[in-house]
Design goal:
With about 325 residues, the protein is an alpha+beta fold. About 45% of the residues lie in helices and about 10% in strands. The chain is built from 13 helices and 8 strands. The protein is globular, with a radius of gyration of 19 Å. The structure holds glutamic acid. Glutamic acid binds next to loops.
């Protein structure tokens, strides 16, 4: 992206940030007590381009638990380590049409997809099951570090304990899947659940989340160190699911209106992937009734009203008043 376009985009982001900041609707997540305690006024927006340009505004350095955003990387790692065929035996690829923690399964008794709780617990069961818990956790946290930098990933033990102590629903889901006989052989359910809670309690900031999104927009290669962590076909599979099921029960409307693969977490983060362009992350803890950050959704609506970022906007040839940043990256398409 050339400097003039980049500067204009940053100005627009700045302007939209200040408009959205006035919105104080929504509430922090209350079902995990530690999440209810965070300062609800925090608000940050970060963007990384594929050529490693960065712009951020607001509380971009504030750490938060990545919660459901962890599900995306866990699935990518499960695919990389086990292969698509094996993973498909245990996790579906359909939107569930139900709440992220609902007791629903597909017609083969599998979780509908890896971005709802049952599916993420299943992905966790497929990451290094042969190793002890410490090695499994280290493996995943090291993967996060290899994407966003070793000093930019932490762990919130209080949230982990809070989640673990109030996890009756997730335990019930995990045991129902045992009853469905759908785990890989020799899965230890309790260790898998612990692992899942730990992954949700990993901490990052808005800046790092945008960098992760940019790695996905780059097809699995880190934008600063240029290391191919994932084959692009794995990222394509992940982005398809994020596009159809990344935003809780708002996913259909999000894809229709915003048109970007994204994932939301109950801590108030939303990251979106703009293939071939970069990654954008918004953090603001007040959630709407579906579990998405109120300001996050509003920010992306305003941004995509100004810019042709919807993945199908390229089909629209007629002149409209939306700005385009896609044209500068034609060589990558
Ligand atoms: N740790 C949360 C849970 O299991 C994740 C929810 C989310 O962010 O969607 O309920």
């Amino acid at each position: 992206m050339d400097q003039v376009e980049w500067d204009e985009l940053c100005n627009d982001i700045n302007e939209i940030y200040n408009l959205v900041k006035c919105n104080k609707n929504g509430n922090t997540a209350s079902y995990i007590p530690q999440l209810a305690k965070v300062n609800p006024d925090q608000f940050a927006v970060s963007i990384y381009s594929l050529d490693n340009k960065y712009y951020g505004i607001g509380n971009t350095e504030e750490e938060f638990c990545i919660q459901s955003c962890s599900k995306t990387l866990t699935y990518a790692v499960a695919l990389r380590d086990n292969g698509r065929k094996e993973v498909d035996k245990h996790i579906g690829r359909e939107p569930s049409g139900a709440r992220f923690n609902a007791f629903v399964f597909d017609d083969e008794n599998k979780p509908f997809n890896p971005l709802i709780n049952s599916g993420a617990i299943m992905s966790a069961s497929m990451v290094k099951p042969e190793c002890n818990d410490d090695k499994r956790f280290e493996y995943m946290i090291d993967t996060w570090k290899s994407i966003v930098g070793k000093d930019n990933v932490g762990f919130n033990n209080a949230v982990y304990l809070s989640e673990k102590n109030t996890a009756n629903r997730n335990r019930a889901l995990a045991y129902l899947m045992m009853e469905n006989n759908i785990y890989p052989e020799n899965t230890n359910i309790n260790k898998t659940l612990e692992f899942y809670f730990q992954l949700c309690s990993i901490t990052m900031n808005c800046k790092s989340m945008a960098k992760y999104a940019a790695m996905l927009a780059n097809g699995g290669t880190t934008i600063d160190t240029n290391i191919e962590l994932f084959n692009p076909s794995i990222i394509r599979d992940l982005l398809c699911i994020m596009y159809s099921a990344g935003m809780y029960d708002y996913s259909g409307r999000w894809s229709f209106d915003i048109g970007l693969p994204a994932k939301s977490g109950v801590s108030g983060v939303i990251f979106a992937v703009v293939p071939h362009i970069g990654g954008i992350s918004v953090y603001s803890p007040r959630l709407d009734k579906l579990g998405n950050s109120v300001r996050g959704v509003e920010f992306f609506k305003m941004l995509t009203d100004r810019y042709k970022l919807h993945i199908f906007d390229t089909l629209i040839k007629c002149v409209d008043n939306k700005k385009s940043i896609l044209k500068v990256n034609k060589s990558k398409l």
